[in-house]
Amino acid sequence: MTTTTPSRGLARARRGLAPGGGGKPGADGGLNRRSRLASQATRTFFWLLLPSVFLLILIHGYPLVYAGVQATHDGSLIDTGNFVGLDNFANVLGAPAFWKAAQFTLVFTIVGVFGSWLVGMGLALLLRTRIPAGGFFKVLLLLPWVVPIVVSSTAWNWLVATPDSPIPAMSRALGLGTPLFLANPTLAAVMVCAFKVWVSFPFMMMMTSSALSSVDGTVYEAASMDGASRWQQFTGITLPLIARSTYISWILMTIFCVNDFPTIYLLTGGGPVDATTSLVVLAYRRVFQDFQTGPGVAIAFLMTITLVVISAVLYRQIRKSSVE
Amino acid sequence: MSAALHTHPAAGPELSAAGGPTGAGKARRTVSEADVRGRWWRLALILAITVVVLVPIFVVVVLAFTPATTSTSTGLTFENFSNVFAKTLASTWLKNSLITTLSTVIVSVAVAAPAGYVLSRGRSKAVSGYSLLLFVMQSLPIITSVVPLFLLFANMGLVDNLLGLTIIYVASTMTVATWMMAAYFDSIPVSLEEASWIDGCSVFGSFTKVVLRNSLPGVLSTAIFAFLLAWNDYLVAIVFLRSNEIFTLPMGVQSFFQQNATDWGSVMALAVVMMLPPIIVFAALNKYFSVGGIGGSLAGR
User: Where is this region: Disordered (chain A) (predicted)?
Assistant: First the structure.
């Protein structure tokens, strides 16, 4: 921004800096030059942060506040309607549809997090050993995560949707009957969870791989000399060493699963008979199909509160472990 | 990469202790028969898993090149591609997706890089408070903000509008992107910047000339993240896009399913068109990007 006098003291001056708040000019006695640089840094920081703050307020802050207004009013998307207090929340919490969706969200999240973790970690461990063209497989196995959900859900649909689709037809040929994967409530739920694991395991694989790559190989030598079995090495060395990264990836995946809309909506639309309706799908339907803005936003709010709690816990945990 | 970590359990320690560098090199080369057999087993296993996992992707590609039942041609064909581009708005959707995604990537990096710099170098309550705020925001369900934003954007004429879509994509990538940039900037030593200050550089100057210039991998990684998010999004698109000619590719592909008989050849041809850019970007820039990096940048600060 402004031109300046150089100073070796700048770094030290900036360390005590409060952007927007000023860097205590003159606090150090005669060091005017340092404080001038500090305030220059403060000003620069302010301008550098401004676009980000503006977007955060416009696209995150304002909508959150306005969602609060909508959640406490009846009315539709076009007309906010009258203030009804917490009636929407009471109605939402009193409706069986909410609890059914909450239950499915819970199942979907648990299967999504631990299913993709087990598959992803298994593959990461397998790929860690020497395999010809290991790096090539690593890239190929990332594809489910890279390919757009719209594309992969189309393919999954083609594979299982109708009685004549390849997988039901194969099952018929094997004499196992013709499963209707997307028409049977239980099978549809299984399908959606399996699809989620298929989409997400590469993320877990990469998270585990990068955690494993920082583990020093010599600890295994020592352990195997002490006679530790492969399994003992895994539970005694590998798991504790990658624990922090694992913990973080679980929480991130929880957030991804709870917030997930397209994986479910594109494969089943939330059906059959609401069997795969998660909270996001329910909120979306309330607002954009039933035109009940209040209840829809109330559902979203309840999810928000849950996720903020999870986030805050995660943040504190991370802060604690990085201070150590 | 993993070879360096894999040491021979039996021979490793003694040899490296006794023989120095040459001994260690010999140990790495001495591979027992059991180990070789183990390697082939693992190769077979990973090959089988990869094939099963990629079935849905093979399906898309194969069907895209398979002629329709009504068609006279046999074998593999490009017919579906020419059909889908001739008879539908596919080229418009592709153009819309490209415009939206590229704008998102550019603006996202342009907003996140400066903010990430402040997060990385600033030491104050305000900065760490803002960093916490960003972290919480990235975990919020987008559905909460979508409804109020729909009203706000409707009043501003930004519904059914690519600009409106881009603004939301930028905002939703910005939170994680800022953290990713900040984590990358943390790895660039402040001493480099101090040298530039001695040469008369301003703080802003050292940010652009020293830090940013040395941050290509970080910038690329953030850009790929923003690209994937904007290119693949479905929820925001389904809420904000109304008319056919404003659709992005996900909406375009999906719109085929509303017709009675799904023309699978066309759907899959368009699906192939849609999955190519992320695969190309990934294949070309894979070394700059790691999923672990995203988690790492969230975790590392």
Answer: 1-32
Chain A hits for B284, Cβ within 8 Å = none
What is the C-alpha to C-alpha distance for residues B9 and A220, in angstroms, rounded to an integer? 8
What are φ and ψ of residue A83, in 5° steps?
-70, 130
Q: Do B295 and A158 touch (CB under 8 A)?
A: no
For residue B164, pLDDT over 90 is answered with yes
- For residue A7, is pLDDT > 50? no
Q: At B183, which amino acid appears?
A: A
Contacting residues of B for A5, CB less than 8 Å apart: 200
Cβ contact B293:B220 at 8 Å: no
Chain A / chain B CB contacts < 8 angstroms:
339
Tell me the whole-structure pTM to 2 decimals: 0.83
Helices (H), A78-229: 87-94, 96-128, 134-140, 143-146, 149-160, 166-173, 185-212, 218-225
Query: What's the CA gap between A204 and A246, in Å, rounded?
Result: 9
Domain ranges of chain A: 27-71, 87-320
CATH 1.20.1250.20 fits A87-320, yes or no: no
Give how far A177 is from chain B: nearest CA, Å: 22
